Amino acid sequence: MVNYCGNPVGTIAANNPADKYPVNYDQVFIRDFIPSALAFLLNGEGEIVKNFLLHTLQLQSWEKTVDCYSPGKGLMPASFKVRSVPLDGSNGEFEEVSDPDFGESAIGRVAPVDSGLWWIILLRAYGKITGDHGLQERVDIQTGIKLILNLCLAAGFDMFPSLLVTDGSCMIDRRMGIHGHPLEIQQLSLPPHSAFPFASPLPSFSVAYFSSDLLSFEEDRRTPPTKALVAQLRADLIEFINEYKDVFPERFEDMPGIDFSALFYAALRSSREMLTVDDGSRNLVQAINNRLSALSFHIREYYWVDMKKINEIYRYKTEEYSTDATNKFNIYPDQIPAWLVDWVPERGGYLIGNLQPAHMDFRFFTLGNLWSIVSSLATPRQNRGILNLIEAKWDDLVANMPLKICYPALEYKEWSIITGSDPKNTSWSYHNGGSWPTLLWQFTLACIKMGRPELAEKAVSLASKRLSVDQWPEYYDTQNGRFIGKQSRLYQTWTVAGFLTSKMLLENPELASLLVWEEDPELLENCVCALAKSGRIQCSRHAARSQILV
Ligand code: GLC
């Protein structure tokens, strides 16, 4: 635990007393703290999470320069370290200072693009689990969110709605060929939406929200409900369910009666939050909504692969010049790697790692695919397909230790060119196909959301056989994840915290459901309407279903 001015503000990345050269593993990393924060929250210890959120917010506005160049305002650091320094002019007295690292000391000088996104996600989780929404409403916190989003939404030369980043600007923080528009970053940009309201498809829902069944609802603090309003809300909801029941058949069939799903809950809660939108944030909220719709369309449509899609790519025509080309990015069928042809299962599929003109990175990246499930970036059917693929490819993606960070590893010449001959990222090691137990909590969350906790239990039980005996390694190596990683730290905090959080989530699935996002029909509709403006698609919910719900 790291304290600043007497308050706990985070946990260090690794704590192995035998390690004489901890490099920067004695610092608090924003991304590493997320599973620790969830473990604290699930254990009823919200204060440290609040301290962390406020402390890192202060670091956000730090003056920063790298070789005379100042990175964008709003950037959150990768990590920070608290040091004691002698007080000027005092004899023997010390003061504590907190030094953030925005990438200026990091190996490869990479900007931590994911830090701000994780910060927003954690802020939401804090509110959901503690019930303390006052923190989110504070002016300084609102400004922090806006600064992060302004940075992410700034217009550039991009033609795609995905976020353009440099290699290594996330959990994989060294060159691994994930520059451009990598999936790992795209899914993290979705959740900010939940921090902001959007227009409810049901007008009356903006004034009240339901609890777990249709017969009871809690009143909105600002608008006392009337009998007529209650009746209207119910009528709206029934109409809404009827309209969507063939869009999400599995969801409604599974539901006892017309029980409430988190889909509605999230939509209603967000609509309720809408009442606090002011003139200063209206444009930003609009920009977020537009971007969310475009991004989910882009990823669902162009990043998804399964048997059928790969066969389609295999038969692609190339050099198509027109707005309605099928092969929009001019992908040559020869790009389909040999391993994929035999690997892709009959059932299921996944989102590829990256898409750029004439280039599809077909590697499977676990964090991106899991967060696409958790945040509903992918369609409900795609989400089920991703878990089906993990199940079918268990021996490749889990084997002896959950879970591979990506699959397959880069080898030989490809390894040399893409990683820059990085000896830490040799095949099936570290970021290049190594196994990272911290991914377990995100897998657990995705499995619980999709009603497949037994898959997560299997993975947790596998991990429990090795982790404590092996002293909680940072990562494992080899194609089957059998060895503790070559340069793996021991007593790695996010390994311990990820394992604890997974167990707590499995024991409290109702808390897990507060941490996920369900499909948002409003976003689908926006997207179809935008396409309709180009005269190609009719604007309706039915169109949304056929166009976007693959
Ligand atoms: C490594 C990992 C990074 C992590 C850091 C601290 O650099 O790649 O994701 O945040 O270690 O554990």
Helices and strands, with pairings:
Layout (H helix, E strand, L loop, with lengths): L1 E3 L2 E4 L17 E2 H13 L3 H15 L18 E8 L7 E8 L11 H18 L3 H4 L1 H15 L29 H6 L3 H4 L12 E3 L6 E3 L7 H18 L4 H6 L7 H12 L5 H24 L1 E3 H8 L23 H6 L5 E8 L2 E7 H10 L4 H13 L1 H4 L8 E2 L4 H8 L20 H10 L3 H14 L9 E2 L5 E2 L8 H15 L1 H4 L8 H13 L7 H8 L2
Antiparallel strand pairs: 1-2, 3-4, 4-5, 6-7, 8-9, 9-10, 10-11, 12-13
Helix pairs in contact: 1-2, 1-3, 1-20, 2-3, 5-11, 11-22, 14-15, 14-18, 18-19, 18-20, 19-20, 22-23
This protein binds alpha-D-glucopyranose.
Alpha-D-glucopyranose binds next to helix 1.
Organism: Coptis chinensis
Protein name: Alkaline/neutral invertase
Keywords: Carbohydrate metabolism, Glycosidase, Hydrolase
What does this structure look like?
InterPro entries: 6-hairpin_glycosidase_sf, 6hp_glycosidase-like_sf, Glyco_hydro_100. It is an enzyme of class 3 (hydrolase). It catalyses: Hydrolysis of terminal non-reducing beta-D-fructofuranoside residues in beta-D-fructofuranosides. By secondary structure, the chain is an alpha+beta fold. The chain has helices at 30-42, 46-60, 113-130, 134-137, 139-153, 183-188, 192-195, 227-244, 249-254, 262-273, 279-302, 307-314, 338-343, 366-375, 380-392, 394-397, 412-419, 440-449, 453-466, 493-507, 509-512, 521-533, 541-548, and strands at residues 2-4, 7-10, 28-29, 79-86, 94-101, 208-210, 217-219, 304-306, 349-356, 359-365, 406-407, 476-477, 483-484. Mean pLDDT is 81; it is low at 192-225, 247-276 and 535-550. The two termini are 45 Å apart. It has a 4-stranded antiparallel β-sheet. Helix 1 packs parallel to helix 3 (113-130) and helix 19 packs antiparallel against helix 20. The chain folds into 2 domains: 2-205 and 253-539 and 542-546, Glycosyltransferase; 207-244. Bound molecules: alpha-D-glucopyranose (GLC). The site of alpha-D-glucopyranose (GLC) has 6 residues, from helix 1. Alpha-D-glucopyranose binds next to helix 1.
